[in-house]
Amino acid sequence: MSKPLVFISYSHENESEKNVLIKHLKTRSNDFDIWVDDSIEYGDEWLEKIKKAMGKADAAIFLISKEFLNSRFILSTEVPELLKRQQDNGMMVLPLMGRYCDFEGVPWLAKMQIYPKNAKAVWGSSSQNVDKILKDFTHMVATRLNKKVDDKLSWQPKFQNREEELDSILYNLSNSGGCRFFLLVSGPQIGKTWLLDKLASQVMTWESWFVIRTNLSVKENYWARADSIGILAHHFGVVSYNQSAGLAEQIGIKIASQGKSLLFLLDGVEYLIDDEAKKLRKLLSEIKISLKKTGKSIDLAFIGASRSDVKAWKGIIPSPRFKHLVLTHFKKAVIEQALKDMAAGRSMGSNWAAKMSLALDDASEGLPALLAYYMAYIRKREFVDKVDDIVKVDVFKRITVPYVENQLFLNENLLLAHYSQKQFTIIKIVLLKLSPYRWISESHLEKIINADNKLSTNLKKQKWETRDLWNILSQTYLIRPSDTIWHEMYPGIRRVLFRYHYDTKLKQKRAHERAYKFFGEWWKDISGTDRSLYLIENLWHFVESKRLSSRINGKSKDILKHAAELFTGALKPNHNTVGDLAKFVVSRMQDDIEFQLSIMELDTKLFEKILTIIDEIDRN
Length: 620
Fold this sequence. Notes:
The protein is an alpha/beta fold. Helices cover 54% and strands 9% of the residues. It contains 26 helices and 12 strands. A 5-stranded parallel β-sheet has the order 6-7-8-5-9, sandwiched between helices. Strands 2-1-3-4 form a 4-stranded parallel β-sheet, with helices on both faces. Strand 3, helix 3 and strand 4 form a beta-alpha-beta unit. The longest helix is centred in the first third of the chain and has 25 residues. It starts with a strand and ends with a helix.
């Protein structure tokens, strides 16, 4: 877990006082990190850096002085944002009286407890022991932050969403003929690390197994990204490992000497380039062979976790073959059970958990980390919120907006490679503009760029062509690339980003209107299943635009009319017949839960009526 972050708000006219304070705070660097605007490098976008730091901070120190209270930037930008975070998220705000000033005339400050006691200024007189005061202040900051961390860790929602995957892996590990090699795949914030935690804790209780775990996203392990076989070599004290076959034999002997099978857990697998992944696969295979030669009942298992489904881990060559487990968002039943566990001992009513789980599913889209924030919010407010309160705009801004800005849109959560701040901003903007679409292609990107002069200009400044940007987007952890022209953004993440970017129903409606017009323009130039997919997406966007419309009557009639006009004569065969394509469309729609839920929210019988229209095309 990362250390808490302390944001320092001060006037540059108090630079010397700030430097003394920083020296004291740094004596507790094991307990917390410090952010001060000294860390902004030449050429950085300073305002964005400051806002990002305030959004991530767990505590803020106000170095109070007359200069502080006369700073337009501090009073208009830093103070309002930090006080808002204090009110919304319980952030610690710690005013420190640096030099005497008339703080009692400042309403927001006058009601706060100021350090030192009685607002006695640290640099108030030459007789004061400044070091003693700041030492005690530093101790107080560390103590309060540690208590906050302990409180945060003392309660976590007990999700059971990965029980199926957990049971499957444990079953395989505990049976001699079971699979030993797995790759867990999902976008960021979906629960891979949680599952590895559970696996490690359970397997460590088995007498016949021991566990090694490495995380390639941790700075101290960056070296291993370019030396995958060195991970096990270093763990077992093998100094020279140029020949992987010899290395496998040495590691096999060391594993066998422990008399236990090894479970090797590797988080951050996506950081390994293809060649390194293949080297590691080869080494694992050779270790397994060497263990068999010992004649002992000792085995090797490997479970990797990746934010992208890397090709190097697919197929049967090189051995061993991996079983891929794709983790998805939480289901409603999981959320409901977690709510029941959280509310145990309270009289919440028989249907409270069922109704609240629907609201939380809608608010969090089943994303584990976001759901945990919503549940913590409910718990902190002593369960006073009604079900409808959870989906209100102000709650969304309080919980989901910071989650998107401070977690989903972190460089390390979004991209493998590092890009400049301006490049990263372009990538974020494009992802948000693509968020209305369930399936995206390079054509979508081209249309978005052509329609936005500012974006197009910024791309030229970076010397990026559309294809360059498309290749970068294909490598983000929010998108699941495929071998076809179509890529898919993780559904739960896509829906959260869509509501974040298009923050009113009117904006959302217009975004879907633009989307179905786009599909209406492009499907005529293609045929077969690709055209069929375009038609389905056109209809889905049309349904969403009607669902979000403020108009009450006539929505179902409009949708049926649009469906009839859309599909009649539009299923263009290539190597498939029209009948084949009609069956493909029906099958695709029947498997499309998101599509069905959108339609059924308007009319429970509407979906069957649409299928009837397509069936008639098949019969004719």
